[in-house]
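Why predict the complex rather than its parts? Because the way molecules touch one another can change local conformation, and only a joint prediction can capture that. The input here totals 270 residues.
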Amino acid sequence: MTDETTIVRNTRQRAAVRDLLADCEGFHSAQDLHAILRERGERVGLTTVYRTLQGLADAGEIDVMRPPGGEHLYRRCSEGHHHHLVCRDCGRTVEVEGPAVETWAQRVAGKHGFVDVSHTMEIFGTCPECAAARS
Amino acid sequence: MTDETTIVRNTRQRAAVRDLLADCEGFHSAQDLHAILRERGERVGLTTVYRTLQGLADAGEIDVMRPPGGEHLYRRCSEGHHHHLVCRDCGRTVEVEGPAVETWAQRVAGKHGFVDVSHTMEIFGTCPECAAARS
DNA sequence: GCGCTTTTGACAATCATTACCAATATCGCG
DNA sequence: CGCGATATTGGTAATGATTGTCAAAAGCGC
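Output of the joint prediction:
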């Protein structure tokens, strides 16, 4: 336990979680993923799902989003880092990219001497359809 | 029910929460604020603090930040909208402004037809001191 | 195969937030 | 000014996601 032990052993459970994330494109909660694994017949404990997701998140292999609802959502980290535009009403999500934002965040953090920088950004609004339905 | 029932009555409790937020510059959790009110002798229920904060947040009078820790943090909304650079280790927070980000968010959301746009952004990193201490 | 270590996982614990609902305070109005 | 309808309060219970615990089981180096 002296060195930074991340994930040192390959286990059936971790593989299951990884595979599942590879299959599911969008965001899913830990509880969600656990339920899906159960349905598939994979026997993985809820605790393990949480731990694995945390590990993967720490390792930067997956993204975490924390919507106002309270549940954390995890997603396989696609190469292109991008952000989310979420409709307040229907929950529809659009993925958007913002290279300018990335560099801005890096620059600002660097200016204050911060290192190992990451960031989260979410844009909320009302999508055209909901706005129309709202009358 | 056609009209948005926001806050229709002025009560001692709501005033207390507002005043408190006016005093405290930084971010505070609901539980925090409640404890402070208690110490001050103001008798305000925890439930009411939560409700009031939610109302104020909805009305756009205060900002909400949701750090990884899980506790929601509320802050009196200063006129200049700005974001936060948070140290992962010591929790030190630096306020940063990014006009470019604001306009970018608006533009991107608008491009997708979204209206009534708001956004949240947080930058995480390791501050110089913690980075040094980390060796 | 052996043994040391990591990992698992069922369950309990934690903890912020929300629901409930009777008691209370507010405010318009006569 | 007082009354009454109604918004609001607040103690407590419920909710529900996440984390802690720790004995049992599984990996991996040899």
